[in-house]
Amino acid sequence: MQQELRKAFGNFGTGVAIIAVRGEDQQAYGLTINSFASVSLQPALLSWCLANESDMMARLAACEKFSVNILAADQQYLSNRLAKPGDHKITADEYTIGAHGGVLLNGALANFECRVHEKISAGDHVLFIGAVDAAHYCSQQRQPLIYFRGAYSNLQVAGDA
Ligand SMILES: Cc1cc2nc3c(=O)[nH]c(=O)nc-3n(C[C@H](O)[C@H](O)[C@H](O)COP(=O)(O)O)c2cc1C
């Protein structure tokens, strides 16, 4: 069943995002996710899920703020790097800090600066609901990074050659 479920879930093509936080040492850390969902406009809420077994759990469970960074197609290297167990470090030249303290990855299609609104234990994951303090987006015509059936995929955006 678990294998079937995983494969069936994988048929939902998604974007890819990086959840980023800043530690007390001011170091930025990031984790690749595709469980992002918009939840509410008024109030502004979004959600994503973190596996209980993630090495990032302790850091994220303790955080009051996080950012969500929606990746562009040319940022696959970041998705790969931050999807590996390890230090999850984001280097200083890869981001700026937003007005609400969020880690804003350079070159992302959109960035959301959030406060933790609610954390809900849900099976083998924790559902994070974030209250959005600020939303930024890129208005240029650019391709998103897409994930479908366990692999990166292409999306033809209307208007592209
Ligand atoms: C495209 C993609 C999407 C992912 N989505 C999620 C997700 O929504 N939630 C999650 O906990 N892990 C997700 N992962 C896995 C984490 O990125 C990966 O388990 C983690 O970075 C491994 O390090 P960790 O053990 O420190 O968590 C995803 C990985 C990839 C490549």
How would you describe the overall organization of this protein?
With 161 residues, the protein is mainly β. The chain has a single domain (2-151), classed as Roll (Pnp Oxidase, Chain A), CATH 2.30.110. It contains three helices and 13 strands; from the N terminus they run αβββββαβαβββββββ. Strands 4-5-11-10-6-2-3-7 form an eight-stranded antiparallel beta sheet. The longest helix has 8 residues, at 2-9. It is globular, with a radius of gyration of 15 Å. The mean pLDDT is 95. It binds flavin mononucleotide (FMN). Flavin mononucleotide binds at residues 16, 31-35, 49-51, 54-56, 79, 82-85, 147.
Q: In a few lines, what is going on in this structure?
A:
The chain contains three helices and 13 strands; from the N terminus they run αβββββαβαβββββββ. With 161 residues, the protein is mainly β.
CATH topology: Pnp Oxidase, Chain A
Overall 3D shape: globular
Quick one: biggest sheet? 8 strands, antiparallel
Number of helices: 3
* SSE order: HEEEEEHEHEEEEEEE
The secondary structure category is: mainly beta
CATH class: Mainly Beta
The Cα radius of gyration reads 15 Å
The helix content, as a percent range, equals 10-25%
Strand order of the largest sheet: 4-5-11-10-6-2-3-7
State the domain count.
1
Distinct compounds present? flavin mononucleotide
Secondary structure layout plus pairing:
Blueprint lengths: L1 H8 L4 E2 L1 E6 L5 E6 L3 E4 L4 E7 L5 H6 L2 E6 L5 H6 L7 E2 L4 E3 L5 E3 L4 E13 L2 E13 L8 E3 L2 E3 L8
Antiparallel strand pairs: 1-12, 2-3, 2-6, 3-7, 4-5, 5-11, 6-10, 8-9, 10-11, 12-13
Bound molecules: flavin mononucleotide.
